[in-house]
Amino acid sequence: MAIRLARWPSRTTPTLGRHLALAVGAAILLLLLSSQIGAYDDYNLAEVAIFVIAVAGLNVLTGVNGQLSLGHGALMAIGAAARLRGPYLAGATLALAVGLPQIATRYSHVFGGEEGLTVTPPGPPDWLGADFPPERWMAWIAIAAALVTIVLLANLLQSSVGRSFKAVRDHEAAAALAGIDVARTQVHAFVVSSACAGLAGSLFAYWSGLTAPAGFGVALSLQLLSAIVIGGLGSLSGAVWGSIILVIIPALTGGLASSLSLASSVANNLPLAIYGSVLVLAMLLVPNGIDGGLRRLLVLARTRWTGAPSTHKGVVDWDDPSGG
Predict the structure, then answer these.
(1) Which of 47, 60, 260, 304 has its CA 20 to 30 A from that of 68?
(2) Does residue 261 or residue 232 have the better pLDDT?
(3) How many CA atoms lie within 13 A of 176 on its CB side?
(4) What angle do CA 23, 28, 228 make, to 5 degrees?
(5) Bridge-partner residues for 211, per DSSP?
(6) What gap in Å lies between CA 172 and CA 178, rounded to an integer?
(7) Is 232 a residue whose pLDDT tops 50?
(8) pLDDT value for 82
(9) How many angstroms separate the CA atoms of 284 and 278, rounded?
């Protein structure tokens, strides 16, 4: 008996319009927020937006398509695609993350070695005025790139390509019987995810002003994975929450460590310990991530308010092809 995938009704125009409206609204709010905060907060806001791009791309690969990559820190530096699967894919990307810094060291005359290459951030245009903060301009660039990325990924996931990603993730054999080229679909997911990592890496270079091999290693890849777990696996809005946690928690804990006047060995490890504790608590309290927890609270609140049965239907997300 042939297995057929259910066909969702075509809603390209309404979906695109909804995503663009959400993006424009978010852009207005974020630009207003950026204009009211200081240079340091603008700097952190730009970092959040950059990580949103990388985490959203990784969420497409891991959460939506079911492929695990441990080398996305390296992909943020170069971008790549692969045909490997399962543990082989994880091992190959891990080897990439470990080996890439050695290339920069071996060809130090090209890549700057351990010290890396200095990157000059783009300055704000003249029409914004001579006193316009460069940190705010960098935040605006990163926000624009993040919103465009989210809109494109949201529409991609609600297309036939996105449904193929999810079908392969759920059951490769059933997807193959339904006529989906599994290997080709997995490569497409990896290419999309890698493109997001490459875009985030290019913005990261401008944001930091330096591209050193140590900044794109295994630690960064594991941070990106922890962000999609904390935010919500397979959810684009979860990528936003995970990126916020990825940036805000170390910043807050770093300030706490310095204010407590602790020993250097304790102060250096305190941010990592607190970040690990937050990750463990998030997995225990909200196993579906922050996005899943918020959805659950929304459903419970609506159930209590309307008396309707508790169900997840009607909770709209950008990457939900059913619209509920």
Answers:
(1) 47
(2) 232
(3) 7
(4) 45
(5) 117
(6) 10
(7) yes
(8) 44
(9) 10
What's the mean per-residue pLDDT of the chain? 75
Report the SS3 class of residue 205. Answer: helix
Read off the tokens for 72: 């996305």
Q: Give tens-digit pLDDT for 170-221.
A: 888 888 888 888 888 888 888 888 888 888 888 887 887 767 666 676 777 7
| Contact between 49 and 57 (Cβ < 8 Å) | no
Residue listed under structure tokens 């804990």: 253
Neighbours of 23 (CB within 10 A): 18
How would DSSP label each residue in 98-119? HHHHHHHHHTHHHH-GGG-EE-
CB 100 within 8 A of CB 115: no
Helix ranges, the chain (H):
12-36, 39-59, 72-78, 86-106, 108-111, 134-157, 160-170, 172-177, 182-208, 218-231, 236-259, 264-285, 289-306
CA distance 96 to 288: 29
**CA 80/CA 50 separation, integer angstroms:** 18
